[in-house]
Design a protein that fits this description.
Blueprint: E1 11-15, H1 20-31, E2 35-40, H2 43-55, E3 59-64, H3 70-84, E4 89-92, H4 108-135, E5 140-144, H5 148-151, H6 157-176, E6 183-188, H7 195-200, H8 212-220, E7 232-235, E8 240-243
Parallel strand pairs: 1-2, 1-4, 2-3, 4-5, 5-6, 6-7
Antiparallel strand pairs: 7-8
Helix pairs in contact: 1-2, 1-8, 3-4, 4-6
């Protein structure tokens, strides 16, 4: 975990910040000097995060928001522009697993909900923050995805399809950024001790898995101005970057 203040004076937006990987990465960004814009549906989790960030001597702006509300995402982008004029980092972490099921058995409303959270919300975030990232000296965006995008195992079709869509969007967007100072990448956290992992693998011993805080440093590195990679995946399991 980087012992730096590489994010001092930076503004970093984190989605899904009330628990798990989002919570840990928001805390880590604050530890490294960032003002964190913390987005989640759960107010209690955001308030707990705010207390921890204040204890670190940093600050946060709490945004209780359902990412399926695209208009609210647009308003968030406008509010960031009015207050800071730019956004230095976007950690698009929020996501949902959905039902692990044979694809023909997935209910249409379940399919639409997972795609809304995992795909459409990330598109709306990208759309809302693109100009803000371009206004920063070194705008950085990272989207938390999964190796399921490539493995597409049986019964994981819905989740895998949603993450494959995220990967494809980021790959295209990164190509559009080549002549700018903005960089966009994908992060594969691997198996981590989170509520989502427990739902996916109920028989797994959680004590065998790393805590979110153990991978948070690598994720927050993805919004550091020192990062030069663009259009790549940082795969925790492989301890390095691989092609999208």
């Amino acid at each position: 975990m980087a012992d730096t203040q590489d994010l001092a004076g930076k503004v970093v937006l984190v989605t899904g910040a009330s628990r798990g990987i989002g919570y840990a990465s928001a805390r880590e960004a604050a530890r490294r000097g960032a003002h964190v814009v913390a987005v989640a549906r759960t107010v209690g989790g955001l308030e707990e995060l705010d207390d921890e960030i204040q204890d670190l001597g940093s600050s946060a702006t709490l945004v209780p928001l359902d990412l399926r509300d695209g208009d609210a995402i647009d308003r968030l982008g406008a509010a960031i522009f009015e207050r800071w004029g730019a956004l230095d980092g976007l950690i698009a972490n929020a996501g949902m697993l959905g039902t692990l099921s044979p694809l023909p058995h997935v209910a249409p409303e379940e399919f639409e909900k997972v795609m809304a959270v995992n795909v459409t919300a990330n598109y709306r975030l990208l759309r809302s923050t693109d100009l803000l990232l371009r206004q920063a000296d070194a705008g950085r965006a990272v989207f938390v995805s999964s190796s399921s995008a490539k493995s597409a195992r049986p019964y994981w079709g819905l989740y895998a399809a949603s993450k494959a869509a995220v990967d494809a969007m980021v790959k295209a967007y990164a190509g559009e950024l080549e002549q700018t100072s903005v960089r966009a990448n994908v992060f594969y956290p691997g198996a981590v001790r989170t509520a989502m992992r427990a739902k996916a693998m109920p028989g797994e011993n959680p004590d065998t898995l790393p805590q979110p805080r153990e991978i948070a440093g690598a994720l927050v590195d993805m919004v550091s101005p020192n990062l030069t990679q663009n259009g790549q995946i940082y795969d925790v399991a492989q301890k390095g970057f691989v092609a999208l």
